[in-house]
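debug: dumping io for the single-chain case to check the tokenizer round-trip. Nothing else runs in this session.
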Amino acid sequence: AEPIVHIGEVRSLSSDDAAKSPRVHVRGVVTWRGLREQLIVQDDTGGCWLEMSEARSRRLWTGDDAIFDSIRVGHVLEIEGVGGPGGYAPVILPTALRIVGRQPLPPARPLEPTRFFSGADAGLRIEARAVVQGYRSAGSAWVLELNADPGRFTAEVPRTALSDPVALVDAKVRVTGVAVTRFNS
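debug: decoded output
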């Protein structure tokens, strides 16, 4: 079978189909990078997690860790691998990564509560207007408690970008970032 070539196609796989490890060959821009082996990539059709730790544990990723470590937000990646069911939505388990350039991040879509709170926007850049109701410390970030009326959510903000979260409590803010769905089993 031909490999999947659009990130949106990976994201729309059923859990059963994703578990069959379909081949994937996509190109997308890195829109988020976590401290650990976490990346989110997006193309014109959708956004998706790259699951490096799962790819390593299944011995799919045997590539150069220096390449992985050099990847930054805004890099365009060519990704070969397989699909996987992930914990919440399908993911990509890479077997090969290549940085092929840089590009501006995709435009953020306005928060639509039904899509956002259902998880349909997971992996996509969004922009929300909300009131800051509180905050807490989380290592190198602040976690802002936000109310978009309707709906509450959190946003992680690097400490370097926000020196005084106290000043934001009760303020209306605009946040732009990548939507991530938290789940439990």
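debug: round-trip ok. The first strand starts at residue 23 and ends at 33.
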